[in-house]
Write a structure and sequence with these properties.
Radius of gyration: 22 Å
Strand order of the largest sheet: 1-2-3-4
CATH superfamily of the largest domain: YVTN repeat-like/Quinoprotein amine dehydrogenase
Order of helices and strands: EEEEEEEEEEEEHEEEHHHHH
Number of strands: 15
Largest sheet: 4 strands, antiparallel
Structural class: alpha+beta
CATH architecture of the largest domain: 7 Propeller
CATH class of the largest domain: Mainly Beta
Distance between the termini: 59 Å
Number of helices: 6
CATH topology of the largest domain: Methylamine Dehydrogenase, Chain H
Strand content: 25-35%
């Protein structure tokens, strides 16, 4: 149903590379064509009665997905408790169809349960430049900092998190609370704080913690995120970064980029195991050489990987790896 709430825009995110604007506008998520910046054209709007305040938006790097956040209750309520609804106070993932309309997919909320003393809803963030994946980091007030993978729009998942814990200890006895606070399951006089926003910039995550200062974090490898993927992300360097004017991410020719795609194919069984093993060995052998020998080895590997595309379970990712190998060969001197 179309809500009847406010329509003023809280935040807009422009993506110049796609000539699109995503507007987080009260009760609506807007999609705007900005091909002519002087004459923007609204081309779609999405409404969701579960969302209290469409707050911010983040595009995927290919411009085919948008994550919208819901700052339910203005960020002052404890919306991440065990009994809190998944659909309220979190993220939703939308895709942009070929006819440039929004299609809503899944909701996402941090899986770590927060207490009644912790104000917690999804808030500000931006992309982490891992090749081949759509990953973003964001602040969740006292829910901490969360890294979310939305590569699969139907199954967004948390990859990593950082949580300082509650500012306030649980009270020893119940204290009188207003009906409004009681409705959210919160307690009276709870302190407001937590991560206002978290952003990845040149290898680190920076989080502005309202009550307790500034946090600087670094990603660590796990079963969900490989060392190669982290190293490939570090290769993307910005002099300036404004998340509301989202930059197009481009990766340099480098071995960590190639290995990132290979790691993903292994993780998700996108290519037969004997082929990923052989490709990994060939990448190692090529890196051990230099000059013309390296260039020749990479060109030969590209020819072999090109043949893998057609029969692969994840042909698109094999193609991305092929293109990364070919680019690396082309730029090898």
């Amino acid at each position: 149903p179309m809500p009847t709430g406010p329509r003023n825009c809280h935040d807009v995110t422009i993506y110049p590379a796609a000539k699109l604007l995503a507007g987080a506008c009260g009760s609506y998520g807007l999609l705007v064509d900005i091909s002519n910046p002087e004459k923007p054209i609204r081309i779609d709007a999405k409404a969701d009665t579960n969302f209290s305040l469409w707050h911010t938006a983040v595009f995927s790097n290919d411009g085919k997905k948008v994550v919208f956040t819901d700052e339910w209750g203005g960020g002052t309520s404890p919306m991440c408790q065990a009994n809190s609804m998944m659909e309220m106070g979190g993220n939703t993932v939308l895709t942009i169809t070929k006819d440039r309309k929004y299609k809503q997919h899944a909701y996402f909320k941090i899986p770590s349960v927060q207490s009644a003393e912790e104000n917690c809803v999804s808030h500000n963030g931006g992309l982490i430049p891992v090749p081949g994946r759509d990953i973003m980091v964001q602040g969740w007030y006292q829910g901490g900092v969360s890294v979310m993978d939305f590569t699969n729009a139907d199954k967004p998942a948390e990859l990593a998190y950082f949580d300082r814990g509650s500012i306030d200890a649980p009270p020893g006895v119940d204290v009188p609370i207003s009906p409004a606070v009681a409705a959210t399951g919160g307690r009276a006089r709870a302190s407001l704080g937590g991560s206002w926003g978290a952003y990845y910039w040149n290898g680190y995550i920076y989080s502005s913690e309202i009550d307790r200062g500034f946090d600087i974090m670094e990603l660590e490898p796990s079963e969900h995120l490989s060392k190669n993927e982290i190293e490939a992300a570090k290769l993307v360097q910005f002099k300036e970064y404004n998340p509301q004017s989202q930059p197009k991410i481009e990766w340099p020719a480098a071995f960590p980029v190639v290995r990132s795609y290979l790691d993903q194919l292994v993780r998700w069984n996108g290519l037969a195991a004997e082929r990923t093993t052989a490709i990994g060995a060939a990448i190692d052998a090529a890196e051990a050489q230099d000059g013309k020998a390296r260039k020749d080895a990479l060109n030969q590997l590209a020819k072999e990987v090109d043949k893998d595309i057609k029969g692969a379970a994840d042909a698109e990712r094999v193609k991305l790896m092929f293109e990364a190998i070919r680019k690396l060969a082309r730029e090898t001197r």
